[in-house]
């Protein structure tokens, strides 16, 4: 989309990015649409050079990296229009980009792109490990050493291979590891099982890096585990699966990792061994983007629930797992809690009430108590609702010609005690006002 904007504006473009892969991809995309009046280079090199003559527009790819007092600063001081492009317009720590950019344009939301067929809604398997409580943070994310220490365990590495065989056997896969040692250990585990796998990191020589990605694209290598290379802007449409073996505290980084396999080509499977889906939510979540540098972007409530049978992340509202058939209905959940001797949240009762279409008899069988329903809505019999519930029963008694003792008895069955004189006085006053009318 941005390359087409460059062509439409009909001016020379300086396109900068922070990584070599992004530079090559940008040049290829510009050539494909027939636009030739451009210079594509790294921000590191451009910081040491003057802006090329004739340039009328500067484009910064993955612009969430652009910060003040950095190599990007010179681009903004050139007096030319600057356009930034990113799928995640906020810093790794969640803060907005208002210190560098003046306006924000959301071209399309992830849900819109899925609906229009540009990207896929991924299938996600996850679990809540490892526990990152108290982990040290650097620049808005947990330190690599800390994530490696908590994740680099033989059991987790072995689980990665077993899960891949079960869920993604034969799929072209990109893996995200915590550290170089962790990544190499993951690769070694795949190779021991006869699965062609290779490691990639920032120290890998240019030609070797290109060869590794070429073998992945051709299907000669099935798994490439990387550290800090393929987290953003990495364009290999043939990818089918992502293994996220790196826990991250950054919503930005989680969305970038997911985006690597959401292209419309191939499959879109995420095997999340780091609890990131549970921590941050769906990659299709709606986000209210802001340039405000003082407000941190927060993850949306999950929008997904985990199937106890197979660990598939299933959307809320689904009553049966599409993978293993596990019963995820509110009634099944309530029965499981009751069998385990657990308390049932009122939210669970509301879900069951909706599922049984307001059948009072079924509700009583499930919960062992009659529902309290006012104006068609299930009401929680708590302290705050005492007056409303008592008034409701008094109104029923009046309408049906019952004695007020009936209303007092219904109240006692719920709360275990009679309504006090103060409550009687308040409710009687309210009802007398209604009856006089």
Question: How would you describe this protein?
Answer:
- By secondary structure, the chain is an alpha/beta fold.
- The protein folds into four domains: 2-86, P-loop containing nucleotide triphosphate hydrolases (Rossmann fold, 3-Layer(aba) Sandwich), CATH 3.40.50.300; 113-315, Rossmann fold (3-Layer(aba) Sandwich); 330-374, no CATH class; 381-436.
- The protein is built from 17 helices and 16 strands.
- It has helices at residues 2-9, 20-32, 43-46, 73-76, 110-115, 144-151, 154-168, 180-192, 206-218, 251-259, 276-280, 330-339, 346-355, 360-367, 386-400, 404-415, 421-436, and strands at 12-17, 38-42, 55-61, 82-85, 123-126, 137-138, 141-142, 173-176, 197-201, 223-227, 241-244, 269-272, 304-306, 312-315, 373-374, 377-378.
- The chain has an eight-stranded mixed beta sheet, with helices on both faces.
- Helix 15 (386-400) crosses helix 17 (421-436).
- The longest helix has 16 residues, at 421-436.
- It is elongated and about 90 Å long.
- It starts with a helix and ends with a helix.
- The relative contact order is 0.09.
Please supply descriptive tags for the structure shown above:
alpha/beta, Rossmann fold, 4 domains, eight-stranded mixed sheet, four-stranded parallel sheet, elongated
